[in-house]
Amino acid sequence: MSDGGPPRRIVDGMATDDSLVSPDGTRILYAMLEEINGRFFPRRNILSMDGGEPLASFLLPPGVTNIQWTPDGRALTYVDRGEGWNLMRKVLPDGYPQRLTDFSDGQVVDHRWSRDGFRMVLHRRIGSHDSLWMLRPGETRPTLITEFKTGRLARHLWAPDEPILYFTYGASTQDVVLMGGLR
Questions:
Q1: Which of 34, 56, 60, 167 is the Cys-Cys partner for 43 at CB 3.0 to 4.6 Å?
Q2: C-alpha span between 92 and 60 (Å, rounded)
Q3: Could you report how far apart the first and last alpha carbons of the chain are, in Å?
Q4: CA quadruple 151, 155, 160, 163: dihedral sign
């Protein structure tokens, strides 16, 4: 068994803590703060794990959350509060962001891609109501999976044996819930 070798620095400088390794393990997305007109913004960079110059460098709108690689590694998805807390997709390296959802109320809290990339689950919140929605690439309208009038959803994750979804839900404690048959 190999010990993995000595650690090596991939990114030099002041990278922020929201780094993500691409699904195939060949690239890393990281952010470095850049001053623009007296304010600091995270400039996202994509770097080969072998090092060198960034393969892409771009700014996302202020306040984006839940940034994720798409399973094929060709794009990023994220929630943009400036777009009404909707889910967005940015094709790499320099694609223009496009909306994947068009909710007019509430907010997409987060999302998780299935490993095969054929679907994602969205956690949505309107006031005190949480719900889970399914969205497939190319579709424009997500499908409601389940809704909760009380309590909170905390986390959700696709099982290795998809299409099973695990999530935690509860009011004062969090129960682990399994939901299967999500095709």
A1: 34
A2: 12
A3: 39
A4: positive
Residues 91, 76: Cα–Cα separation, whole Å = 7
Cβ–Cβ under 8 Å, residues 11 and 28: yes
Helix or strand (DSSP H, E) at 66 = strand 64-69
Count the neighbouring beta carbons within 10 Å of the beta carbon of residue 88. 22
pLDDT per position as a tens digit, 161-181 = 767 888 777 776 666 666 666
- Report yes or no on whether pTM surpasses 0.70: yes
Structural tokens at position 164: 């099973």
Closest CA to 28 of 20, 40, 36: 20
CATH, range 62-179: 2.120.10.30
Express each pLDDT in 130-148 by its tens digit: 999 999 988 888 999 988 8
Task: Give the integer Cα–Cα distance in Å for 178 and 99.
Answer: 29
Buried b (16+ CB within 10 A) or exposed e, 96-113: ebeebbebeeebbbbbbb
